[in-house]
Amino acid sequence: MDLIRLMRADLLKVKNTSYYYIHALVPVVVATMLVIYYGTKPNDGVGSAIGFLETISMGFPLIIGVVCSLVIEKEVAAGRFKEMLSSKYGKFKCLLSKLLVLVSCGFISFYLSVFVFYTGLKYVYKKVIINLGLFMKVSLIVFAVMIFFYIFHLWLSIKFGVGASVGMGVFESLFATLLDTGLGEGIWQYIPCGFASRLVKNYFIINYPSKYTVKLNLRSIISVNNTAVINCVIFTIVVGIFLAIWFNYFEGRGEV
Questions:
Q1: How far apart are CA 210 and CA 214, in angstroms?
Q2: CA-wise closest residue to 201 among 150, 182, 37, 108
Q3: I need a surface site. Which of 23, 29, 76, 131 has the fewest CB within 10 A?
Q4: Residues 135-159: b if buried by 16+ CB within 10 A, e if exposed
Q5: Taking all residues of the chain, what is their mean pLDDT, rounded to a whole number?
Q6: Measured between alpha carbons, how far is 51 from 45 in angstroms, rounded to an integer?
Q7: What's the CA gap between 109 and 99, in Å, rounded?
Q8: Do the beta carbons of residue 33 and residue 122 sit within 8 Å?
């Protein structure tokens, strides 16, 4: 119950900011633009799904950087973290509440874009697209990868502020784009920025090998994917533990 109260309070704090507009409008606008783009091109369902999820995965770190900074800057404006640091519910619950609010809103926003894209292509442009269950499953992989970025940007926002979080989000989105090219071969599975887009592409290659004319080494692709998934889980757990321990000793910016 305490955690629910804290989450409700956190949601109210950002009521008068652009937080909700970002979560509601950005996914609809981006998904609509991609529907128009892929709807007017002779792509098959697999190609459209890959393009959509790759685009979302590359842009999401920037959105995460912005929304994390919005949530934390409300705490700064309200008394320089006074409420988080002196709450009767404890520092950890306050931090966990912030993270759960961010991840929950991000999850709803993410699947809103998935819904708009899928329904737009299938019912507006009458395009043949992959099975909805499969599309949702691959989409879940993309969002699961993003949890690492939520934790990381929450720390950046608390420690350094808006500039660091948004700036890092810009860098991560650009770096993710580079890792999706040939420059990422052999290293993407060790870098969080490359996880989402590469996992999506490889997942479809594994499930639809007939769509690709080049010779594929499926065993090698599966092995690399497994390495990326393991690394993603490890990185997320490590950064989560680090944030919890670090925040326990946090007394305000510049006072750690």
A1: 10
A2: 182
A3: 131
A4: beebbebbbbbbbbbbbbbbbbbbb
A5: 90
A6: 10
A7: 15
A8: no
